[in-house]
Records
---
Amino acid sequence: MTLAAAPLAVVADDDEDILTLVSITLRRAGFDVLCARDGEEAVTLVTETRPALVVLDVMMPRLSGLDVTRHLRALRKRMPIILLTASVQEQHRAHGLEAGADEFVRKPFSPKDLLDLVERLLGRDGRPAGGPATG
Amino acid sequence: MTTVHPPRTRSLRFPIAVLGAAAAAVAVVLAAAYALPDAEDALVALAWAVAAGAACVTGLDIVRRSQNPRLRRAWLAWSVACAFWCGGALIRLVAETSGWSDLATIADVTWWMFPVLAGASILEDAPRGSLSFGLFLLDALPVVLLVTLLARLAASEPLDAGRAPELLLLGYPLLYLLLALVGLQTLALERNRLRSPNLWGFGICQPLLAIAALTWPSDVIAGSPGASFTGEMIWAVGFLAAGVAAVMRARDPDAAPALRPLDDSGFRALPPAIGTVGLLAVAAVAGSGYSLVPVVLAAIAVVCFTGRAFVIQRENRLAQTNLEASEEKHRTLVGNIPGAVYRCAYDENWTIDFMSDAIEELTGYPAASFVGGRGNGFSTIEHPEDTPGLGDVIRRDVAAGRPYAHEYRIVRADGEIRWVLDKGRAAYGPQGEVLWLDGVLLDVTGRKQTEERFERQTELLWLLQRVAVAANEAREADEALQVCLDEVCAYTGWPVGHVVGRGEDEEALVSSGLWSIEESEEATAFRAASETAHFGPGEGLPGRVLTTGRALWVDDIASEPGYLRGGAASALGLHAALAFPVLVGTEVVAVLEFYGAEPAARDDGLLRVMANVGTVLGRVVERTRAERALAAQNDQLRQLDALKDEFVSLVSHELRTPLTSIRGYLELVLEDEETAVPAEHRQYLAVVQRNSERLLRLVGDLLFVAQIDAGRLSVEREDLDVRELAAESLQAATPAAEARGVEVALDAEPAPLAGDRSRLAQLVDNLVSNAVKFTAGGGRVAVRVRREGDEVLLEVADSGMGIPADEQAQLFERFFRSSNARRAAVPGTGLGLVIVRAIAEAHGGTVSLESTEGVGTTFAVRLPARLAEPAADSPEELPMQEVA
């Protein structure tokens, strides 16, 4: 697996610490990670770079994760989208899935579980696992 | 049925012609007598005959025409008397012309019959009351004659035929004087019936005859022929007067009184009288020498006549008494009837013929003032509002032959109003024509008042009922108040109703803006005056009610000094006023005021009902107040609830996000074996991790309880086995148990049911971790799972410190921690058991516990063992992703 082949992920969260945590986790798993700090930036990055994976916080300034998801799906972006939320309410999960997200992850989450989910998603979609081998 | 009255008018041409001719003839004859002194006696006799004959003919004319039997008899007697007189005059005429002096005596005797019969005539026609005296006088007549004869006898003067006329002359004046007295007495007794011309006739006639008779003896004694002639003249005029009286009498055949006894008394006295006179005549004609025989016979006749007269008088008195008793009976009968009896004509004005005295008590007007249609009548006493149409209704009843009965008001002489029941029916003639109406007027005022009172009471009860119903149905007090305004105005007919309530300044009352009033310029002014006014305690009508807390009646606000809105009220024409409080307990929360267009006296019944209405309205106010307070409280609770939700989601987000970072970075540090983290630091980081977990659990529990409170605890059922959940839970707890030296054991059989896997797992975890936490080293935690009938029983038993009995009931209250737990410093939030029970109940189950201090505690959860119905759950629904 070459470096050029490293899959690209876009991560968006207004909380810098979470953003960093998710970025580190994904980079360790072999992704190239682009970070966005609000929804609009996320939309811009995704449309410009066509990433293999998008991870969005639900509660973000300008555009929420749900809005970004809808927008991206409207733009026929078919990559997996994972929503992060601190909410425990069931209907938020339903809303997220309705908007077109593939998975809905509650905070706090374990980085390891997140990775498991990512691998499952990419594998399920028949895409290359993206060579998580580090090094 | 009754007799039909004969027509009252009749032709008088005949009697007037007769009398006129007779008067002319007499005048001619007397003039001739004056011119021819030699033939004087004969001509005077002729004049007599003419005058008496005319009187006789006019009397017979009345007899012919009259249908009244008594009247016919009376005038028959008069005519017969006149006939005798006429006959006597004719005999005298023959005697004068022939020179046969015996005939002259016979003529004189014949004349004697006149006064007797004339007296009989008077008696027949005379009103009652004069009878006794008249009979007495007639009785006295023979006595006078007897006395005269006895005087002659005592003088021992032989009575010859030639002296007989002189002898008789002495009796004439006395006789006519007596008759004159009868006439005068009759006049005196009947002066109130002076329109009876018959009496006038006799009253004038008889004195004239008496005066004429007086001239006769003076002629004989004084030898003055002129006096005799004057007497004859006067005599003739007297007869003419009698004739005129007869004519006038003929015009008024009904003038005789209606009630009269002894129809034929005059005629019954007649035979003895004729007999007496006849005896005297025989004695006089026989008179050669004076025999005792005629005297004895005359005396016998007199005794018979007198005795007969006494008998008649007694009969008279008796009849009189009976009559009076009968009349009294009728009078008292009519008088005692409870009401006034009347008879009235069936004409335009219902002219009253008879009205009993009771009418005076009823109307204040005397009965006499009603009779004859000249003074009072039905139209003057009937209440003007009741009269229209009443006459027509009565006429319909009469036309249909029905009795009529109607109630109407009358106005008494003193202005008082009374209710009468006018009940009666018509009398009909043979052809069915209406003759008159007989009826009675009964005073039914008392009954009417009772009826009206009853009606008013009923109306009041309806009013109260309507207000009560409205009060019950009203959602707002204003609705009930408006209904009350409208209902009371409709009941009283008063034009204005208004509510004043507590203003912002709680001390004073101000208009609530609720009105029952007809729009007009004056009404607008009154509204404006009312709506700008402040009624402090004691100020104006509402203020006075506010002070006393009691209903208030004002007969007329125009004369009420303390009334504040006098100008506007008088412009609107308001007078009577009623105000009453709406009471909540003893607090006046509003005052209802009503105004009438007329002054009115206090109506206690209405006031009492208004007091009730006030209480009813007070309850409405109380109820709506309570409802409003409750609604406000609910609002507040809803706000609090929303605040809590907001807080929960804030906590959820704000706590969980930093926890994510703490735990995420810890994991990054700890999983990285190569990272050089000293063992000691690794231990510190493990403490951080443990506490972050505890914090996470606390946040989770808090959110969970918030969900329970919000009623948002949802259960997503799937088929599962409680035994597996118990095994997983024990497995998870094993490290902690081992660390504490607590033995854990599972005794389970398969126990499938449909439930929410994650929540039931949470339930088992909570119970097991509790048991481990509260069990000291060397203790034991045993979990049993059993299938019992339709239930799954999960028991978690420990050999821990136990829970004091008095705290067990509070155990399932949130944040409650047992005293033992606090003492032993067992960590916990006091939410675990709350969550356990909520989950069990969400599955239709129960939680119970048994605990003995120092021995241990056993929690038992019973869950219904029903399996998921295939259609009930949505298979697409993914289980909640438990990441923690």
Note: The longest strand of chain A covers residues 8-12.
---
Amino acid sequence: MKRADAAALALPRFRAPALFGVIGLLFVGLLARTLFLQSVDNDFLQEKGAARFSREMELPAHRGQIVDRFGDALAISTPMKSLWAFPAQFDATPAELASLAGVLDTTPQKLKARIAADEGFAVLAKQIPPEQAARAMALKIPGLNEQNEYRRYYPGADISAQIVGFTGDKDAGQEGIELAQQAWLAGKAGSRRVIINRRGEAVEDVAAIRAPQAGRDLALSIDSRLQYLAFRELKAAIDKHNAKAGGLVVIDTHTGEILALANWPTYNPNARNKVARDRMRNRALTDVFEPGSTMKPFTIATALETGKVRPDTVIHTEAGAMTIGTATIHDAHAAGPLTVEQVIQKSSNIGAAKIALSMPAETLWQTFSDAGFGTPPRTGFPGEVAGRLRPAKTWKPIEQATMSYGHGLSVNLVQLARAYTIFANDGELKPVTLFKTDGPVAGRPVVSAATAKAVRRMLEMATLPGGTAPKAQVPGYRVAGKTGTARKPEGHAYAAKYVASFVGFAPASNPRLVVAVMLDEPQGGVYYGGDVAGPVFSNVVGAALRMLGVPTDAPVDNVVLPPPGTEIREET
Amino acid sequence: MTRVNLVLLGILVVCALSLVTSRHDARRLFVELEREQAKSRQFETEYNQLQLEQSTWGMPARVEKIARENLRMQLPAAARVEVVDTTAKRAVP
């Protein structure tokens, strides 16, 4: 038995080496395969692996706030959550789906439809409050994920809508300051790479997290209290006179900051789904109109500057009609001889035209241009317009005459308000801005201080009885300003539609605020700037000076209105 | 020789144990960091919402409405205003 075993064990001599050889070869094969996978095929495999278990997640950056000059928010981002799922991993029982739908205020059918709609990535709820998202996540449904996002809110709603603007998709500014200052406000989104498990949950960070960089805050020159006041008074006047549109600008004479800029019509930027684009325009900066009589002070200032006239020079205003070439210009209320002061006080077209025609066109053009007409106001707002001021070479005498009282050129409301800083600041034009500035800003001299003071006096006379705007007076403060009532050009003729405006400043003894009011197409019989825009100026300037704590420069019983029934004569 | 080896073994054991402890510490601290970060995010959210609430409640439109309707406040007429002259003592701002 033992022998037989021994015989059986006598194996062929080559068998062991052969086996070793085969096994060795297999090892070599394995080694070669390993080398191949590690070197040649490495990239491809890494990619495949990463695609299966690692995900790049975006970390949204916080967008900077837009605040008013006191730091109160005008636009603010708050964190929101969005819920999403990889449909392949989403696995909810009907009961879970029903409770998820309950939390999200929707129906299970709608959720199912959303998951079926996209194979890679399905958004189940966009920008919901964090508490709601937490309740949804508490259901612990496999494949359900949340993501941090931000939503922009505008506490000022319709009051400051046109200045601030709004953001669209992906936090990109679409209108107003949100658009103009996109680079400053926007942060840089960060990202993190995570390993996810079978259920689609992030389990581990791989590589370094690229932290999101928050955007910077931006302080506007707007004073929320004045902005509201301006908006309220403008709205009231528009309702009262049934006007089509309107604008109101308040400028600080020392710094050129725009403290308030109200527009009508307006919209609510928090719910703007069905808002016509027309309502989104910041008319005070993007729309032009023919200013009418509010241009007269610039004509007079030019004439005073050249020495052609003095405030008490007498101008004969003919009998209310004057022919230049083939055209005739009119004063609706013939006034006989007027001093230069009275030309402003009574707003005589013929007076202004005669003074204008006594100077070369270039001289007049130079003052208008230096006062900022024909160039954009550069407030930092997107889409602001320059208005139209044609070169002096192309002016015909009749045009020179009509331009002296504000027809044949166009301006926007902010330009007009800025130009009046010349008279409020002893001849210096201040640059205007929508951003908060510290301390007084240097202006550019346009006329001499003496001329500015003389015009200031005339403008104050215009608001006193005998002037065109007694309704612009304010209890406790001396005010100065000019009315404008311009017929609107339609095609080649002037229609029976009006733009009523008033531009002025207060206190007249040491001006602090320039306020410009414009109402487009007031209806119902009353359309004079003094009747329509004057009271708005009075209400806004009075309340604003009180809010700013500006000392009064007149007794509180200073308002003297002409006796009832007196017709206030104003040219159009 | 044996002694040196024993000493080295001792050092090795100590090092191994300290590695275990520090790994454990690191993990514990990471968890803590995550928790604090979550808290900071939560506070940021809350702060933002409070800011939003503050600016919404503090809008001049709402303040005025409450002053007029609930508190029945109104602006005094010009005739009822007495102006006190303080310019003599204080500089004009």
Note: The mean pLDDT of chain B is 85.
